[in-house]
Amino acid sequence: MASSYLSRGSLFSLDSASLDGSLIVIDPRIERGAEDLGERLRGPMQKYAPEAWVIRGSSADFEELLDGDPILPDLARRAGVPILGLTGSHDESDRRPRLWKPAWCELTAPSPSLDELRQAELLGILEASRAIHRLDRFHYILPSRYHAGEFIRLADALQDPIDTVRIADWLLPYLREDSWAIADTGTLLPLLFALRAEARDRFGYDIHVANLSEYPADYISMDDLLADCMDSGPPTPC
Fold first, then answer.
1. CB neighbours of 113 closer than 8 A, spacing ≥ 6?
2. Among 10-19, 133-142, 206-215, which is the least confidently predicted range?
3. Peptide bond between residue 235 and the one before it cis (omega within 30 degrees of 0)
4. Residue 42 parent element (H or E)
5. Full 3-state SS string of 50-118
6. Of the candidates 112, 69, 99, 67, which has an alpha carbon nearest to the alpha carbon of residue 169?
7. Which of 24-33, 212-221, 224-233 has the lowest mean pLDDT?
8. What is the pTM of this model?
9. Is pLDDT at 8 greater than 80 in this prediction?
10. Phi and psi at residue 109, in whole multiples of 5°?
11. If exposure means fewest CB atoms within 10 Å of the residue's CB, which of 25, 97, 111, 166 is most exposed?
12. What number of helices (H) and strands (E) belong to the chain?
């Protein structure tokens, strides 16, 4: 199933030819302001008619907010489009983002995979923040020495704290209680700090953060370097 991402009034899609048979992932950024979800979504739901809407959030109470919204049930009935919720996990036993259908949604909803939704959201965040750099008739030589028609500067996608937390939602399933989050550039520290904060608040994890000047060539050197980082205290630029 084709998935698109609606953010900041713009629609980003892998297949921009048509919305037929597709769903739209929309982030109403409910963490910002006091307006009801339904009021934020009224305009987009009147403008677009996908096969389904997936409404995004990350907070512990997002499922309750979506299930109890006073406006969305009527909007969904009028549009004849099913609605799903997608939120970051707050359950240590299953740290993957959670997809569910609100109790008031009476229509049969599709069952997109989390992989599809992750791809749609991450691509949308990168596009909306202009983190994907392209130039006609040019290509890029990447640090790996491979050549590519596009270059992603992830730091550009970390300017908005809400986008940073959404990206962290997809990384949290890969963390353990004793994990390290490591980068070789300070521009990625917003994501590392968000991972550390969300892992602590949601699961009680105390993960470690390090910003290295460069990645060592082998695991033994990495172990020694991280031991030095632990001794110097967090957060650690090494």
1. none
2. 10-19
3. yes
4. helix 37-47
5. CCEEEEEECCCCHHHHHHCCCCHHHHHHHHCCCEEEEECCCCCCCCCCEEECCCCCCCCCCCCCHHHHH
6. 99
7. 224-233
8. 0.87
9. no
10. -105, 150
11. 111
12. 7, 13
CB 201 within 8 A of CB 177: no
User: Can you tell me the distance from the alpha carbon of 66 to that of 101, in angstroms, rounded to the nearest whole number?
Assistant: 10
d(C-alpha 41, C-alpha 35), whole Å: 10
pLDDT digits (tens, 9 = 90+) for 46-57: 888 899 999 999
153 three-state secondary structure: coil
pLDDT over 90 (residue 67): yes
Q: Which two tokens stand for residue 228?
A: 């030095």
Quote the tokens at residue 5. 């991402």
